[in-house]
Specification:
The complex is a heterotrimer of chains A (368), B (374) and C (312).
Chain A lengths: L1 H21 L6 H19 L3 H21 L7 H9 L6 H8 L8 H99 L1 H29 L3 H20 L2 E7 L7 H22 L3 E8 L3 E8 L11 H11 L4 E5 L5 E7 L4
Parallel strand pairs in A: 1-2
Antiparallel strand pairs in A: 2-3, 3-5, 4-5
Helix pairs in contact in A: 2-3, 3-4, 4-6, 6-7, 8-9, 9-10
Chain B lengths: L1 H15 L1 H21 L2 H4 L8 E6 L5 H14 L4 E4 L6 H6 L5 E6 L2 E6 L4 H27 L4 H7 L4 H4 L10 H15 L2 H5 L1 H8 L1 H7 L4 H29 L9 H26 L3 H16 L13 H9 L1 H14 L6 H25 L4
Parallel strand pairs in B: 1-2, 1-3
Antiparallel strand pairs in B: 3-4
Chain C lengths: L2 E12 L2 E12 L3 E5 L6 H8 L7 E6 L2 E2 L4 H6 L1 E4 L11 H11 L4 H14 L15 H13 L5 E5 L7 H16 L3 E5 L3 H7 L2 E6 L2 E6 L1 H8 L2 E8 L16 E7 L2 E7 L5 H10 L4 E7 L3 H9 L6
Parallel strand pairs in C: 3-8, 3-9, 6-7, 7-8
Antiparallel strand pairs in C: 1-2, 1-4, 4-5, 9-10, 11-13, 11-14, 12-13
The chains are: A alpha+beta (368), B mainly alpha (374), C alpha/beta (312).
Catalytic activity (chain A): ATP + protein L-histidine = ADP + protein N-phospho-L-histidine
Keywords (chain A): ATP-binding, Coiled coil, Kinase, Membrane, Nucleotide-binding, Phosphoprotein, Transferase, Transmembrane, Transmembrane helix, Two-component regulatory system
Enzyme class (chain A): transferase
Chain lengths: 368, 374, 312
């Protein structure tokens, strides 16, 4: 910005110098002084850093120029650029600014007037364009900065998430192992030990007391049978039905979310939940969580409704809120993530903002 | 082929639109009649040859040229053109600038230089035309003199005629109000081509037919050129009708270089079309038509289509505005062609028009390429 | 069979707004392909890209296996567009309109004349050839709009809401014309707000919402995504209460439920068994007062999938 204005001002000054000083028949030393003063003031302007000081100096330059203009009209030509400089601190009303800058026209005549209008309008155009582009550059830099931050944040949370996921998966496994060990130890372990003791005794008594040995063996067989039954039960009780896992997990998550954010939540489901595969559950779960988070963040809604329906060839999950919605949906990372996840199982995600905000996940299933 | 069929379609549509005809034909003719009759007095007294005063500086110190020139001045003097010698101490150019004389003629051994006044273009043109004619004669005489000195007299003897007749300027013929408006209206109508041109593409979009044009296997440039071509033909036909009407019904004077006049008008129509088109692209939407017609009306006004404005002196803000109007350029050029018999005056106008046309067309082409659809 | 239209990963963005979101679609020769979607769903944007009115942000469109960007002339020659808004010149006669547009497709001389008359004949405007569309009714204008698109005999015709705002008679005429065009070998893309129209004439349908195709297939396939059950309600003149029992053995019937003289049958939607059910009842000398078959229609499919009515 500064380079531009300096360039513009230099060109203007050169023009004025040539037009006023060199075309005059006799050289006027006063003019030289005035020009040098002007230059000096401008240099000072670019040296100081404080905005108030800058404004004061620009004001001084303007007043100085008006003074000089009484001596030689060509000085008015230098006015517009300083006015624009001053204006760049304040007004955004360009029309008004142009009108003010054009005020001196009232005092000018003939060629001076045309020249002044020309220069005023030209530098006005320059000023507007520069401001426009500078505004853009600034905005873009801000955006880039923001994006860089976002990226860092995302990368970090990705890392964290991966670590966390790894750690928690490991923890779950350990716990599970622990529990299974305990169960085996408590139930089957004891039974097997009992059976073993009886069998050892039976072995000793095999020759001396066959009937007792037989009873002991029968006992051992009974215990073993029970143990096998227990193993079966243990295995069965340890393998929960998938749909129970999925739906209850989903419900719990939604309720927990409601508790955390104070939003009213409801979950409705319809159709045969059993056909939903674990992978589909995972996607449903993640999409719902993501959609809930979005609702809490942006919508200003008071209730969120989750609907899960298994249709004939399609699973439909809708998360809808009663918030302000949005007529124009701009896809954020969240929405894109949902889309990508869902695309992995040939599904689609529709976001609709016309009536509150709703995110619908459609996943096809079954053989077509 | 596609270009032609699109052009043909345009012409057909234009001529079916009664408003176009009313606007481009009836309105100018009626205006010509009304203004021509109402403002009769504004003209004939203003520009009469009797007022032409020319100041002459003879730097040859006598000699053939000087003699021939004296003969010429005597001859021309009968028609009311006054030649006066430059008084010592006077500056010929300043005299003209101060409007004391119509022209300043300087005779030197190198030839004749003329400084015309831009304040009285018609008068100045007439004098220049006469002088041009004189020099032609003189050159001929000089050439004859070199070969057969005896016959020199004959050239000048034959030249004892009305120099002005030779220039095809009837001495009684001053541009009357009808003549002025015939020219001004025609030039204005040519410029009006800009107005429909602004809506050329917009109209197709409004009708929904742009969709069909774009989806047809026709290049955008073909659509573009076809439409412009159609517009040019329509407007030119209107212009020709107005010329013929004014010439034969109103008996307006169109000079003897009809071809050249038409060339100038064609170039103006092309320029106007391109201006309108570029404006239509640049401003988009409904506002474009309003703005273009405003600009054209301003041009018409400042160009002197409704009544002659200012003069060509170029002084002041008004003169500046006046000289911005393409209608003014064309008017001036054509006046010179028609009344000054000066064909060469047409070429700069044609050049400027074609130049601007190329500029505007180029700009529209670029905008068109960038845009989706039409 | 040849693919008349092939769309791969088509996307169109207007600034940040994604109007068409990664659509892929194949239309085969001889189909009448219906595009269903609410206003702003991305139908028109897709169609405009296919007809090269808009440039895709990304993705590929092929007509008759040729890329429309690279071989645009070929694509355009084989494409006929019936735009949603009337695209005719009011100040040119019906004949001139058709002839002008057909001329842009390279038709000349006697062939042009022949095809123009043929097209006008096809839409039933032969006797109005010399009249100006100014004096036409809405339906006639719509028909002329179609004539302008078919004179050059395109392989693929895109009809964007061709029946908007016209009387039922003209509407029927247009639907019949669409079928006739299809029979004569044209592949047709048809968009409409009217479900019944789409259901009636389209061989395959895509439901578009928020720039995406959310379901695609024949109408049976679409309906079956929602449910595979149909309800049949039969009202008998008089009943003793056990008439329904016999119906359970008919193929496709899942449950039968009777309330006095009204029998509700739930059946596989895919099995066409209404006749057998009625026959069974008649064999038992039952007098039937009324029969109602409730099948899911496209409207319900759309409502279920998008949660909104098409005409919201």
């Amino acid at each position: 910005m500064e380079l531009w204005t300096v360039g513009n001002k230099t060109i203007l000054l050169l023009f004025v110098v040539i037009a006023s000083y060199f075309t005059a028949v006799t050289a006027d030393p006063w003019l030289v002084l005035f020009f040098l003063m002007y230059l000096a003031l401008n240099l000072v302007l670019h040296i100081v850093t404080k905005n108030t000081a800058k404004k004061a100096i620009i004001l001084a330059i303007i007043l100085y120029l008006i003074g000089c203009a009484i001596y030689h009209p060509y000085f008015t030509l230098l006015l517009p650029s300083s006015c624009y400089e001053l204006a760049s601190f304040y007004t955004r009303k360009k029309g008004l600014l142009l009108a003010i800058v054009l005020l001196p026209v009232l005092f000018l005549r003939d060629t001076m007037m045309i020249l002044y209008v020309f220069i005023a309008v030209l530098s006005f155009f320059n000023y507007v364009m520069i401001r426009h582009y500078m505004g853009r550059v600034n905005k873009q830099e801000d955006e880039i900065e923001q994006m860089r931050k976002d990226m860092q944040k995302l990368a970090k949370s990705l890392n964290d998430n991966q670590d966390f996921a790894r750690a928690s998966a490991y923890m779950v496994k350990l716990e599970e192992r622990n529990r299974l060990t305990q169960e085996i130890h408590d139930g089957i372990g004891h039974a097997m030990t009992g059976a073993l003791i009886q069998m050892e005794a039976a072995k000793r008594l095999l020759n001396s007391d066959p009937p007792t040995a037989e009873t002991l063996l029968q006992n051992a067989i009974g215990i073993s049978k029970e143990a096998i039954e227990e193993i079966r039960i243990t295995l069965k009780s340890n393998k929960p039905p998938v749909e129970q896992l999925g739906l209850s997990r989903l419900k719990t998550a939604v309720e927990a979310f409601g508790g955390k954010t104070g939003l009213m939540t409801s979950v409705v489901h319809e159709g045969n939940m059993e056909i939903i595969t674990p992978l589909q559950w995972k996607i449903i779960y993640e999409n719902v969580t993501e959609a809930l988070t979005n609702s809490a963040k942006y919508s200003g809604a008071s209730t969120v409704h989750v609907e899960l329906r298994v249709l004939n060839r399609l699973i439909k999950v809708v998360v809808s809120d009663n918030g302000k919605g949005s007529m124009k949906i701009v896809k954020g990372l969240g929405l894109i993530g949902m889309e990508e996840r869902t695309a992995a199982v040939n599904g689609t995600v529709i976001a609709d903002g016309t009536n509150g905000f709703s995110v619908t996940t459609l996943i096809p299933y079954g053989n077509e | 082929m596609n270009i032609l069929s699109i052009a043909l379609k345009e012409i057909k549509q234009d001529f079916r639109d009664r408003r176009t005809l009313l606007f481009l034909l009836v309105f100018p003719i009626v205006l010509m009649l009304i203004l021509g009759l109402a403002l009769t007095n504004a003209f004939s007294s203003d520009v009469s040859i009797g007022d032409l005063k020319v100041v002459v500086k003879d730097a040859t110190g006598g000699g053939e040229l000087s003699q021939a020139f004296t003969t010429f001045t005597k001859e021309v003097g009968k028609t009311g053109v006054v030649f006066e010698s430059l008084q010592p101490g006077e500056n010929g150019r300043e005299e003209v600038e101060n409007n004391r004389y119509t022209d300043y003629v300087e005779l030197t051994n190198q030839g004749i230089s003329v400084y015309g006044s831009s304040r009285d273009p018609i008068g100045s043109n007439i004098v220049q035309g006469m002088l041009a004619s004189f020099t032609d004669k003189y050159n001929a005489a000089a050439a004859v003199a070199r070969i057969e000195p005896a016959k020199t007299e004959m050239v000048f003897a034959g030249g004892k005629q009305d120099y002005i007749k030779e220039l095809s300027v009837d001495p009684d013929r001053t541009p009357g109000s009808i003549d002025y408006y015939a020219l001004a209206m025609t030039v204005m109508v040519a410029m009006w081509a800009a107005m429909p041109a602004g809506g050329l593409i917009q109209r197709e979009i409004g009708r929904g037919t742009a969709v069909r044009l774009v989806t047809a296997p026709v290049r955008k440039s073909e659509i573009f050129i076809g439409k412009i071509l159609g517009g040019i033909v329509t407007n030119l036909l209107c212009v020709i009708v107005i010329i013929l009407f004014s010439k034969y019904v109103f008996k307006a004077y169109w000079g003897s270089h009809m071809g050249i006049v038409l060339v100038v008008l064609v170039s103006e129509v092309v320029m106007a079309m391109s201006l309108g088109l570029a404006g239509g692209y640049l401003l988009k939407g409904a506002a474009s038509r309003g703005i273009i017609s405003l600009v054209v009306q301003l041009m018409s006004f400042f160009g002197g289509a409704y009544f002659p404005i200012g003069n060509d002196s170029g002084g002041g803000f008004m003169g500046f505005l006046v000289n911005l109007s393409p209608i003014r350029w064309a008017n001036r050029g054509l006046t010179q062609v028609i009344y000054g018999n000066d064909v060469s005056a047409a070429w700069p106008v044609v050049g400027i028009n074609i130049g601007f046309a190329a500029l505007f067309l180029g700009a529209s082409m670029i905008m068109m390429r960038r845009r989706e659809g039409l | 069979m040849m693919n008349v239209l092939d769309i791969r990963g088509l996307t169109k963005k207007f600034d940040d707004f994604v109007a068409v979101d990664n659509i892929s679609l194949t239309i085969r020769e001889g189909e009448i392909f219906g595009f269903l979607g609410a206003n702003g769903a991305g139908k028109s944007t897709t169609i405009n890209m296919v007809s090269s009115l808009l440039r895709p942000t990304s993705g590929e469109i092929r007509i008759l296996d040729k890329d429309i960007m690279k071989q645009s002339r070929f694509a355009k020659l084989n494409l006929g567009i019936v735009p949603q808004d009337l695209a005719i010149y009011e100040d040119m006669t019906a004949y001139e309109n058709v002839s002008f547009f057909a001329g842009l497709y390279g038709l000349r001389g006697s062939q042009l004349k022949e095809r123009t008359l043929e097209a006008l004949e096809f839409v039933g405007l032969s006797d109005k050839a010399k009249s100006f569309p100014k004096n036409f009714s809405g339906g006639m204008k719509r028909r002329l709009n179609i004539a302008c698109a078919i004179a050059h005999k395109p392989k693929l015709i895109i009809m964007d809401e061709p029946t908007v705002g016209i009387d039922p008679q003209s509407r029927n005429y247009i639907l019949t014309s669409v079928r006739k065009l299809n029979e004569s070998g044209c592949t047709i893309i048809y968009t409409s707000h009217y479900m019944e129209e789409v259901e009636e004439i389209c061989s395959r349908i895509a439901i578009v919402d928020h720039g995406k195709i959310i379901a695609e297939g024949t109408k049976e396939q679409l309906k079956s995504t929602i449910t595979d059950v149909k309800n049949i309600r039969i009202e008998l003149k008089s009943a003793i209460g056990a008439e329904g029992e016999k119906l359970k053995s008919i193929p496709g019937v899942r449950t039968v439920h009777q309330e006095e003289n009204i029998i509700h049958v739930h059946s596989d939607a895919a099995v066409d068994n209404l006749n057998r059910i009625l026959k069974q009842l008649m064999e038992d000398d039952k007098e039937i007062r009324s029969v109602e078959e409730q099948e899911p229609n496209l409207e319900t499919v759309f409502l279920t999938l998008t949660g909104r009515n098409l005409r919201d």
